[in-house]
């Protein structure tokens, strides 16, 4: 009886801890996005760095990813690069699964495990590393920043700060970051190549379209004939990636469900038959192909766009919880035995007449790309000089949805089995207690355990919440001068225009505008 009480207290304590953590972190996500919406980036950074946002070590990767992206949004590209480098190092280490953490999550809750990051998140880290390198190369500075360090004293921990002034980079230092962007692309390719080999035949994320488009841009900036030819090859390869892998997503293919259903067999069919039976291109797909064809033609004729715009639009679809009702397998207990009959009575007393148990599963709602975006360049007098579609080069919300949806079956089975074991143990404990306390008191013990188990099985909702809904790209060839950029958006019958601001174009220089549009 004493042992039973201890078990019950431990179970309830664990449940209360997880409920508190889960509720606090969900509130923190809402506060984080509210701060970004209100352009309070410094406040958002303080929140992520505080113990109010995933203070436990097992969630360190989430904190690093959010911090790195907030620094990027703020324009602190050097700080963002350092944070993304740390995130990459940690995610690579976590990719080799921790046996002790996996064992713990198998009997308790996924929230008790490390956050390893989704494979597409690991890929997007490389995108931001390359982008940060290039933005540092373009600006030629390391921004002023403050270093903080916690020093343990005799009685308390003291936080020491040091202000680091802005540092201007010389020509060689800037070129180092251009080379760093190129090196990030090579490491990115290696990662994706590993995905392709290990997940061959699976209708899941294994290749990143933005690695081709942004990779081509970086090679164009290197300025050599060899790099220009590589850029042409990457644009051509992007069309293959779009056809082979991105037709899995509704943003690019109206028949994406059929494409996914037959994915493992498509390599045996001719491309003509695949297109006929399983592909119906959306506007996003058609615009992207037109963009790629134009860039290939321009580069082959030795022409270049001197202004490129990378646009990070909106927020990735949120990870939420779905409540699952799971039948309690009391039929597996010996029929006619005392515990079998007791189990039936316990379930009925704890949850009514339906013998079910409950738990949560994480899910991502489908968030389709419904907005057309056109980049409008105007001169000083307000006249339109040139327009370009901001084509989708990565529908991250589509990828997030599919990545979780592909795992839902195995996750359901794993959590369902774990919860069933917990309930079986709780029933056994209550049955043993009933021999001394009577069935009414035992039913109260099981009812409390039932609630504790349900609370302890809250869905693991950790995710990289500041990722954009889509990554887009557009380009122009502009004469030297001062221009204004506007972003025209159309969603259904609603059209609006947002004036981003003014930018300069200098002779014989290439410019990258890096925009965040929420």
Describe what is shown at a glance.
The protein is built from 16 helices and 14 strands. It is of the alpha+beta class and 518 residues long.
How would you describe this structure to a colleague?
By secondary structure, the protein is of the alpha+beta class. The chain contains 16 helices and 14 strands. The chain has helices at residues 2-37, 41-49, 60-74, 77-95, 99-107, 119-139, 171-198, 209-222, 225-244, 256-261, 263-266, 271-278, 283-300, 338-351, 396-437, 439-456, and strands spanning 141-142, 145-152, 157-164, 167-168, 307-313, 319-327, 356-364, 372-378, 384-389, 391-394, 470-476, 481-491, 494-505, 511-517. A 4-stranded mixed sheet has the order 10-11-5-14. A hairpin with a 4-residue loop joins strand 2 (145-152) and strand 3. The longest helix is centred in the C-terminal third of the chain and has 42 residues, at 396-437.
């Amino acid at each position: 009886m004493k042992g039973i009480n201890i078990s019950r207290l431990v179970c309830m304590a664990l449940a209360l801890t997880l409920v508190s953590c889960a509720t606090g972190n969900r509130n923190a996500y809402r506060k984080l996005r509210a701060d970004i919406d209100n352009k309070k980036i410094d406040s958002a950074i303080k929140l992520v760095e505080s113990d109010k946002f995933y203070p436990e070590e097992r969630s360190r990767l989430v904190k690093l990813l959010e911090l790195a992206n907030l620094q990027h949004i703020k324009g602190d590209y050097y700080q963002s690069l350092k944070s993304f480098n740390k995130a990459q190092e940690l995610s690579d280490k976590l990719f080799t699964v921790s046996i002790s953490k996996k064992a713990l999550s198998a009997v308790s809750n996924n929230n008790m495990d490390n956050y390893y990051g989704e494979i597409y998140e690991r890929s997007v880290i490389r995108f931001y590393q390359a982008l940060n390198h290039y933005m540092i190369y373009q600006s030629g500075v390391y921004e002023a920043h403050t270093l903080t360090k916690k020093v343990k004293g005799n009685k308390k921990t003291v936080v020491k700060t040091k202000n680091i002034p802005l540092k201007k980079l010389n020509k060689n230092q800037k070129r180092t970051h251009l080379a760093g962007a190129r090196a990030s692309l090579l490491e990115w390719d290696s990662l994706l190549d590993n995905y392709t080999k290990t997940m061959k035949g699976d209708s899941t994320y294994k290749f990143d379209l933005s690695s081709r488009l942004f990779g081509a841009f970086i090679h164009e900036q290197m300025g050599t004939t060899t790099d220009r030819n590589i850029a042409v090859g990457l644009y051509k390869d992007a069309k293959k990636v779009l056809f082979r892998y991105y037709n899995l997503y509704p943003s690019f293919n109206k028949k994406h469900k059929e494409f996914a259903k037959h994915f493992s067999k498509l390599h045996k069919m001719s491309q003509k038959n695949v297109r006929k039976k399983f592909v119906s291109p959306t506007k996003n797909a058609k615009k992207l192909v037109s963009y790629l064809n134009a860039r290939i033609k321009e580069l082959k004729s030795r022409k270049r766009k001197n202004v490129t715009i990378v646009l990070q639009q909106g927020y990735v679809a949120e990870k939420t919880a779905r409540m699952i009702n799971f039948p309690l397998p009391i039929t597996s207990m010996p029929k006619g035995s005392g515990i079998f009959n007791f189990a039936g009575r316990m379930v009925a007393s704890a949850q009514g007449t339906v013998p079910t148990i409950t738990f949560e599963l994480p899910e991502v709602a489908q968030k389709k790309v419904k907005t057309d975006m056109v980049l409008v360049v105007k001169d000083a007098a307000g006249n339109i000089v040139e327009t370009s579609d901001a084509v989708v080069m990565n529908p991250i919300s589509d990828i997030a949805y599919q990545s979780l949806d592909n795992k839902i079956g195995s996750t359901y089975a794993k959590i369902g089995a774990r919860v069933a074991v917990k309930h079986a143990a709780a029933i056994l404990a209550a049955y043993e207690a009933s021999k001394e306390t009577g069935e009414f008191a035992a039913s109260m013990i099981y009812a409390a355990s039932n609630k504790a188990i349900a609370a302890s099985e809250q869905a693991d909702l950790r995710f990289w919440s500041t990722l954009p809904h889509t990554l887009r790209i557009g380009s122009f060839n502009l004469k030297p001068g001062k221009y204004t950029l506007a972003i025209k958006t159309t969603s259904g019958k609603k059209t609006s225009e947002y004036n981003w601001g003014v930018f300069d174009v200098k002779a014989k220089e290439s410019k990258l505008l890096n925009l965040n549009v929420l």
